[in-house]
Amino acid sequence: MQTQLRDKNDIKLFILYLMRHVGYPLNFQEVSDIVIQDGIVGYFNFQECFAELLDAGTVEELKIDGEPYYSITPRGIHVADNLDSPSLNLIKERSLKSALRIISFKRRGDEIRCTYEELPGDRYIVNCIVIENREELLNVKLLLESKLQLEKIRINFNDKPEIIYRGILSLLSGEVNYLIN
Fold it and tell me: How far apart are alpha carbons 124 and 37 in whole angstroms?
């Protein structure tokens, strides 16, 4: 299970790291999505820390076609490149990969969703969905027997939805017989 960041400095460094490596301005929803999507940062912590980054001048608001977008400033780049946190080292690469994928999905009108419902007896129903061009490509609902199983599925689905989609398609079409034998 991913650890949620709670230290404000770690959260700010995490936001700056992601914005630095995305490399272009994002609207508020895109920034929010890439920061909170993996559950590493809670929404309210994100909002508070993002406002502080704006106040500190490490992130700036730009107007693009009259809409507000946000970009990391040279000062923010300096902070992102020169400050480090042991808490962040383990999550940086995975989170950046997820961030770039979610931005790409959203800009194409695609999205992934992985929601769950808790049932009595430490059981869960997880629902994994892939939408491309506003059309549902995959919608899988599973009954799970533990929180650990749920967390593994959520992490793997969020990390590799396209591979999971292709895998399910291959299994159901009989193109992956080595798993059946």
Answer: 20
User: Residue 134 in 3-state DSSP?
Assistant: coil
φ and ψ of 159, to 5 deg: -75, -35
Q: Does pTM top 0.85 for this prediction? A: no
Residue for token digits 């997880």? 126
Whether the CB-CB separation of 34 and 72 falls below 8 Å is answered with no
Q: Which tens digits make up the pLDDT trace of 112-160? A: 888 999 999 989 999 999 887 778 888 999 999 999 999 899 888 877 7
The pair of structure tokens assigned to 111 is: 């999205």
**How far apart (Å, rounded) are the C-alpha atoms in residues 132 and 56?**
38
- Residue whose tokens read 């808490």: 87
**How many residues comprise the chain?**
181
